[in-house]
Specification:
Elements (H helix, E strand, L loop, with lengths): L3 H7 L26 H14 L3 H15 L5 E5 L5 H9 L5 E6 L2 H10 L8 E6 L10 E7 L7 H14 E14 L3 H17 L4 H11 L6 E2 H10 L4 E8 L2 E7 L1
Parallel strand pairs: 1-2, 1-4, 2-3, 4-5, 5-6
Antiparallel strand pairs: 5-8, 7-8
Amino acid sequence: MPDPIDAELYSTSLYLNPDKDDLFEKGPWPKPFTFNEEVARVFDNMVSRSVPLYREVIACAVHWAHAYYQPNTQIVDIGCSTGTFLELLGRFLKQPAQLVGIDNSEAMLEKAHEKLKEIQHTHQVKLICANAEDISFDNSSVVVINYTLQFLPVKQRQTLLRSLYEGLVPGGLLFLSEKVKSPHPRLQETVTLHYEAFKTRNGYARTEIERKKEALENVLVPLTEQQQIQMLRDSGFEHIDTLIKLHNFVSLVALK
């Protein structure tokens, strides 16, 4: 029997003919990389072609959010972008819930508002344009932060993770996905080759790959998986596990 979350994910707007990511094909291109209107326009196509197992990660996050959601608490998506995770979760959760999306890009949240219209008939949906470090996470039973922490200055990441830990109710879940790097240079070189081949298979030209890499330099700063896990431990989490990993992308769960 097909997974109902997986079946629902195929019908989300993530897969309903989003605009093609052509930002780095020719002419002026975003440098440094920023989540502006141009990026928001093509983001769903960009992320599905640029992040290995993106569909599986979103479905997995919904499974885990459903398993650890506690009534009368909130589920928070930090860096919610165009709202794909919240939309799928809202369609899968049968009981009304408080769903909160946080992003510091107005352009992304405009897309999310459109995408989340239908689930607002069932759930209380709140979208906040702000930096995550300025938000309280009190009374949260699930916090999802997918491919967002990596864009913060490294010194701010520990502070944010501590704030998340303090805001989670006992038994609360943090679901975290990040781009990571290998601590071993030779392995990192091989990982990079495989990752760039993945992007080539998804239709990106070599010039697009190189231009985006340049645009992301000093904007997206990955840590190693071991460093990321240590940051979670230093924030208070004791129960941490790796769920998904392919090339230089990993998804972790941590329980309070």
